[in-house]
Amino acid sequence: MSIRDILREFNISTSSYYLYEQAFSHSSYAHEHGDKHDYERIEFMGDAVLDLVVADLVFKNHPNMPQGDMSKLRSKLVKKESLANYARKYNFGEAILLGNGEKQNGGKNLDKILEDVFEAFIGAIYLDLGYDMTYSIIKKIFLDDVINYSSDELTDYKSKLQEYVQADTRDSVKYRLVCEKGNAQSKEFIMEVLWDGNVWGRGSGSSKKKAEQQAAKDALSKVAK
Predict the structure, then answer these.
(1) What confidence score (pLDDT) does residue 129 get?
(2) Can you say how many angstroms the Cα of residue 155 is from the centroid of all Cα atoms in its chain?
(3) 3-class state of residue 188 by DSSP
(4) In contact, 191 and 175? CB cutoff 8 Å
(5) What is the Rg, in whole angstroms, of the alpha carbon atoms belonging to the chain?
(6) Fewer CB atoms < 10 Å away: N or C end of the chain?
(7) Given CA atoms 4, 7, 13, 19 in this order, what sign does their dihedral have?
(8) pLDDT tens digits along 201-210
(9) Annotated active-site residue in 38, 115, 116, 119
(10) 47 catalytically annotated
(11) Predicted model pTM
(12) Which residue has the higher pLDDT, 135 or 32?
């Protein structure tokens, strides 16, 4: 998958290819090739446009959603892990231009780099083709997830469980990794939540944080009975 392949995927016709090449250029690549331009400035634009368009999609598709939940859903959709996964979905990693050292460190699959490149790609579209085209592409990528969100993902079960525990004590619950399954592209984590040495709940997820949330939800379902 090359940069030009990605442009074809999104039906982007451009006379400013250099913008997209810059959007996929990590600072390590720019440094090794004596180029002053990497994706950081374009990423700045993409981050701002992405926040605006995703907020607009959430607002328009959920007319009865409270402001607090709208903020949570937008934050969930544009957080580092989510943007990195969108970048993986469209094979951005294969097109990222990295220096030799960063290549050896597995930079093409690092969440931080994938997130940055995704934002820079959005910034390049905006600078090249303007707001309307950028809006339509972001909508294509995000709309299903905007509409089909899970209410679980907007609830902070860990905070709710901690509040429940601290209603009677100053103690804190602890989380423990039970096991980790799968490979780098498809992970599953199993976590337990403990209080006072006892296991209160167990949960699984594609990250430790998600598994912890599910463990806390499991614990709350038990204490609420």
Answers:
(1) 97
(2) 17
(3) strand
(4) yes
(5) 21
(6) C
(7) negative
(8) 999 988 888 8
(9) 119
(10) yes
(11) 0.74
(12) 135
Structure token pair of residue 79 = 């957080």
Name the residue among 114, 78, 75, 77 with its Cα closest to residue 93. Answer: 114
Type of residue at 171: D
Percent of the chain with pLDDT over 70: 96
Residues ≥6 apart with Cβ < 8 Å to 197: none
Task: Please report, as a single letter, which amino acid is at residue 192.
Answer: E
Residue 28 in this model has a pLDDT that exceeds 80: yes
Q: What is the pLDDT of residues 153-178, one digit of tens each?
A: 677 788 888 888 887 776 788 999 99
What lies within 8 Å, CB to CB, of 222 at 6+ separation is 200, 201
Measured between alpha carbons, how far is 181 from 3 in angstroms, rounded to an integer? 32
Structural tokens at position 110: 């690092």
Q: Which candidate in 38, 43, 47, 218 is catalytic? A: 47
119 is catalytic: yes
Tokens 């969108």 correspond to: 86
Structural tokens at position 1: 């998958």
